[in-house]
């Protein structure tokens, strides 16, 4: 199993994803905004990031850009999450590997984690 970073200012969403993935055997780290997410990435090298688009302090698009500019973070797959349709966000965000529309199904989270952690070359699972 792998380590997953969840970056979301909605505690209910972050806690739900945490519970789902811990039940699947993953280790989960939570950040409440993009700035805190980048701080976590400086200390940890997760196998996958679930990243909310709209957050205070630093939004998902800005964090995604910062990850793309750092060679050590470019290989980490990112699942961008939002209640806004993906077509609207795709013009503003580049570098994510999958999109999760809120509200989501529990099975969507587990399937994405299983698929993306398995494909991540940095994964130790």
What does this structure look like?
There is one protein chain. The chain contains five helices and five strands. With 125 residues, the chain is α/β, with parallel strands linked by helices. The chain has a single domain (3-119), classed as Rossmann fold (3-Layer(aba) Sandwich), CATH 3.40.50.2300. 35% of the residues are buried. The model has no long low-confidence stretch (mean pLDDT 93).
The helix content is: 40-55%
Q: Helix/strand-derived class? A: alpha/beta
Oligomer: single chain
Instruction: Name the beta content range.
Output: 15-25%
Structure characteristics:
globular, 5-stranded parallel beta sheet, 125 residues, Rossmann fold, alpha/beta
Q: Layout of SSEs?
A:
Elements: E1 3-7, H1 11-23, E2 27-31, H2 34-43, E3 48-52, H3 60-69, E4 78-82, H4 86-90, E5 98-101, H5 106-119
Parallel strand pairs: 1-2, 1-3, 3-4, 4-5
What would a concise description of this structure say?
Helices cover 42% and strands 19% of the residues.
């Amino acid at each position: 199993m792998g380590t997953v970073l969840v970056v979301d200012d909605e505690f209910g969403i972050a806690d739900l994803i945490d519970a789902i993935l811990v039940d699947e055997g993953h280790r989960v780290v939570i950040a409440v905004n993009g700035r805190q997410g980048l701080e976590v990435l400086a200390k940890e090298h997760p196998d996958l990031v679930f990243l909310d688009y709209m957050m205070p302090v630093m939004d998902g698009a800005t964090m995604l850009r910062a990850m793309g500019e750092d060679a050590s973070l470019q290989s980490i797959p990112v699942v961008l999450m939002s209640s806004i349709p993906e077509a609207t966000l795709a013009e503003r965000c580049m570098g994510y590997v999958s999109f999760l529309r809120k509200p989501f199904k529990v099975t969507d989270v587990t399937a994405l984690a299983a698929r993306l952690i398995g494909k991540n070359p940095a994964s130790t699972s």
